[in-house]
Amino acid sequence: MYTTNASRGLPRHRSRHLRERYTRWAARALVAALVLALMWLVIAFHLNGQWMFSLLFLVLGSALAVVFTRRSLMSHRYIFPAVAGLGVFVIFPLLYTIGISFSNYSSENLLSEERVRAQFLNQTYQAEGQAFDFTLYRDGERVRLYLEAERGELDAELEGQHQLLSAPLSLTADEPARRLTVEPVASPPSGEPLAMREVIANRALMQALTLETPDGTELSMAGLRSFAPMLPRFVENADGSLTDLRNGGTLTPDHQTGFFVTEEGERLTPGWPVAVGLDNYTRIFTDPDIRGPFLQIFVWTFVFAGLTVAFTLAVGFVLASLLQWDQLRGKAIYRTLLILPYAVPAFISILIFKGMFNQNNGEINLILEGLFGISPDWFTDPTLARSMLLMVNTWLGYPYMLLLCMGLIQSIPRDLYEASAVDGGGPVTNLFTITLPLILKPLTPLLIAAFAFNFNNFVLIALLTGGSPDILGASTPAGTTDLLVSYTYRIAFQDAGQQFGLAAAIATLIFLLVVGLSWLNLRLSKVQV
C-alpha cells in the first residue's frame, strides 16, 4: 500500500518539478529578451548620436539584468517596474530638461554639428548659362527627355552637346529610374511631346532624376522646364572650415555660438547646440525684455494659485456648512447637483465657458447688456481676463473643496455643538470657534497641494485665454494671463526661434518652486500626524 501511494505520488512530484523548471526558464528567457531589446536601443541611440538616451537604456538594461539574475535581490523584483517607470518618465525627463537649460538648444540650434556640416556640403548650385530646356516625348508606353541648349551658352566640357536625348523612362513603374544616360543627337525625336500639365504631374519624378552625359557631367532639374549641371557649393577644408565655391568665401565654425560664420560675421542657419553655462538663467533676470514679463507672470502665477485656493475653499466650505444644516430637506439632491461640475471633464467646461464669455455673442455679455447696458471685453482687457480665469477656475475647483469640507465637518463630534448651544452659541459662533479651527489643520496640506496644482494649471490657460492679451514690449511670447507653465510652453513651441534652452531654464525654476511646496506639504502632513 505504501509503495502504491509512493508510485502514484512520484509522477505528480515530477510534473510539479518540471512545471517549476519550465517557469524559471521562461522567466529567464523573457528577461534575456528584454535585456537584448534594451541593448539594441542602446546601440541604435548611440549610432544616432543620442548619447543621453543610450545611457538611459544602458542603465535600465544593466539594472534589469542584475536584479533578475541575483537571488539576493529577489525582493526588489516586485518594485523594479515601478522604479524603472519612475526613472524613464520622471527622473530622466527632469535631468534632460535641466541639461538643456545649460545649452542654446533652439529651432536654429537643433542638429548636431556633423549633420549641420553635412547639410552645407550637400548644397548645390546651378552653373551660370549652362541650362538645357527639356521636353518629354512619348516613346510607346514610355517617354524620353529631349534637352536643348542655345549655342554659345555652354562651357568647354559640354561643347558639342547642344542637343541631348535620354534613354526611355517609364512614368508608371513602381520603382522609377533614378539615373539615365543622355546622348548627343542631331534633331528632336519624332514622338509626340507631352503637354505642360503632364510635365507638372510628373514633376516629383523629374526632380529625383539625374541625367549623365557621355563625358560624366551630371544634370539635375533646375526649373519646371530646364535641367542643368548642379555643382557642389561648399568644400571642406583641413581646419574644419568650409569654402563657398560660388563666391570664394569661407565659413568658419564658431563653437561658442554653434553656427557657421561668414567672413563678414553673419551667422548661417542651421546651427548646433553648444553649452552656454548659466546664460539662460542670467537672461531671465538681466535681460529687460525677458525680466519684465517674467516677473509679471511670476507674481500673477502666485496670485492666481492663491486666490483660486481661497475662493474655492470659501465656496466649498460655505456650501458644506449649509449641507450640514439639520433643517435643510433634500440634502442628497443638493449634494449631487453641487458635485456635478466635478464629474464633467474640465476641458469641456472650459470650452463652454469660453463660448459664454464671448465678447460679441456670449450669453454672459448678452445678459449684462440687456440688464445694465454693458458689454465687458473679457478677452482683451487684462483685468477682466484675469477675473474671468478666477471665476471659471472657482467653478471647476469648488466641488473638490466641498467634498473635503463635508468629510471633515462630519468628523467633528456633535457633543461640541451641543455644549455650545447650552452656552448660548449660535451658528456663526460655532462656525468660527468650532468648525473652522478643527478642519483647518488637517485641511492645510491639501490646500498646499491644491495651490501646487493651480500653480501649473496649463489646461485652463491654454483652452480659455491662450495667455492673451499679450504683454507689449516682450521679446518672447508672453501674455497677461499666462502662468509660468504656459509661458514656458509658448517660448518653447510658439516663439519664432523656439528657445528650448530658455524654456528649460524656466521649467527648472518651476520645478524648484514645486519641490519647495511639496517639501512644505510633507512637513505639514508630518505635523498633523
Automatic annotation (TrEMBL):
Signal peptide residues on this chain, from the entry's feature table:
none
The organism's place on the tree of life at top rank? Bacteria
Report whether Membrane shows up as a keyword of the record. yes
Topology in the lipid bilayer is annotated as: Multi-pass membrane protein
**Primary location recorded for the protein, binned into one broad class:** membrane
- PROSITE patterns for this protein: ABC_TM1 (PS50928)
Biological process terms from the Gene Ontology for this record are: maltodextrin transmembrane transport
Q: Which residues form the ABC transmembrane type-1 domain?
A: 298-521
This protein's GO cellular component annotations are: maltose transport complex
Cellular compartment(s) = Cell inner membrane; Cell membrane
Q: Which residues cross the membrane?
A: 25-45, 51-69, 78-102, 297-320, 332-353, 388-409, 446-465, 500-520
Quote the CDD domains the UniProt record gives: TM_PBP2
Q: Entry's Gene3D superfamilies?
A: D-maltodextrin-binding protein, MBP, MalF N-terminal region-like, MetI-like
User: Do you know which Pfam families this protein is assigned to?
Assistant: BPD_transp_1, MalF_P2
Q: Which family does it belong to?
A: Belongs to the binding-protein-dependent transport system permease family. MalFG subfamily.
Q: What does this protein do?
A: Part of the ABC transporter complex MalEFGK involved in maltose/maltodextrin import. Probably responsible for the translocation of the substrate across the membrane.
Kindly state the subunit structure of this protein. The complex is composed of two ATP-binding proteins (MalK), two transmembrane proteins (MalG and MalF) and a solute-binding protein (MalE).
Q: What is this protein called?
A: Maltose/maltodextrin transport system permease protein
The organism encoding this protein is: Halomonas urumqiensis
